[in-house]
Amino acid sequence: MAASDAADFSEIRRLAHELPAADEDARARAAEQQRGLAKPPGSLGRLEALAGWLAAWQGKHPPTATRPHIALFAGNHGVAAQGVSAYPQSATQAMVRTFIDGGGAINRICGLMDVDLRVYEMALDEPTRDFTREPAMTEDEAARAMAYGMMAVDGEMDLMALGEMGIANTTAAAALSAAVFGGPARDWVGPGSGLDEAGVAHKAEVVATALRLHADGFTDGLEILRRVGGLELAAVAGAVLACRLARVPVVLDGYAATAAAATLTTLAPGMLDHCVVAHVSAEPGHRRLLDALGMRALQDLDMRLGEATGAALAIPLIQSACACHTGMTTLDAAGVTPLS
Ligand SMILES: Cc1cc2ncn([C@H]3O[C@H](COP(=O)(O)O)[C@@H](O)[C@H]3O)c2cc1C
Ligand SMILES: O=C(O)c1cccnc1
After folding, report:
1. Domain residue spans in the chain?
2. CB 171 less than 6 A from any atom of ligand 2
3. What is the reaction catalyzed (predicted)?
4. What architecture is domain 3-334?
5. Partner of 311 for a Cys bridge, out of 124, 196, 206, 253, CB 3.0 to 4.6 A?
6. Interface pTM, i.e. ipTM
7. pTM score > 0.95 for this model?
8. What is the DSSP string of 307-322?
9. pLDDT in tens, 193-247
10. Relative to the CA of 95, which ligand 1 atom is closest?
11. Is 307 a catalytic residue?
């Protein structure tokens, strides 16, 4: 899909109404196969459901997880000027350089497995506008950022993990979550990369100011994303949409990535059914957001880093689900039958 195909909101809204549904036949075949494997039924717990989920959203049985891909989008935020992060905006660029040099946590995790990690730097010297004063992006900027995220997706990959890097983006995540699901700003903010209590209270004020300013403009998820999101968050949302269209199941990272994806839920029912959330972040808003979305994370590791680290850790879990599903012997072949 070319960026120009989706570079305005009306086209993106149209795409959201043409989403492929799950392949229930593939899911049923997966469930059938699970029943015969050499283990007590249900004993692999959520790994069994993961195999069915992969089959349903890839539209094939058996499912595969041999070509996983990680897209890490980086962008800068004008709202950083409000003093909402423990780190300066320049840390975004410094960390992108670190990822390219191979020294980030995400690089070390990826080094343990065969996964394609790509870092997408989005005009770091042109931050979004401060959304306590005006919308972070114009429609054109937001739609282009979404289209950029869409271009990270192709039908060759069989699993896509999505993450972000952008100083102040947990402030944007809080504003996005509050705009989509309601509730006071203080319910959605947390320390992010390391604010103290006074810092978190100030961050809540900043988010509350933005929510008041934009309240009348929150007409749907795309307007929410444009007003209080960010470039890398719009790219995550675009990639989620493109993965659905390309039949690539998605692993979302932590709070920021999930909040970006959550904006799409206003566009069509079941919008995130092809996604799993890799881990529940220690950033407190993430748990609240998962409850609001009705999603349960795969892991709870007290991590609060972002940069796709949680999503990367979920890849071997999903590969394990697939390996058991496709490679185990059957109860019959093992000569095992239950007593009754
Ligand atoms: C050195 C460093 C590495 C990071 N890797 C991810 N993040 C994470 O922290 C940022 C969000 O936190 P806040 O909203 O408090 O700025 C994002 O860039 C996120 O990916 C990092 C942050 C820092 C400082
Ligand atoms: O969960 C996240 O996405 C997160 C948490 C803290 C800092 N940056 C990102």
Report:
1. 3-334
2. no
3. 5,6-dimethylbenzimidazole + nicotinate beta-D-ribonucleotide = alpha-ribazole 5'-phosphate + nicotinate + H(+)
4. 3-Layer(aba) Sandwich (3.40)
5. 253
6. 0.99
7. yes
8. TTHHHHHHHHHHHHHH
9. 999 999 999 999 999 999 999 999 999 999 999 999 999 999 999 999 999 999 9
10. 3
11. yes
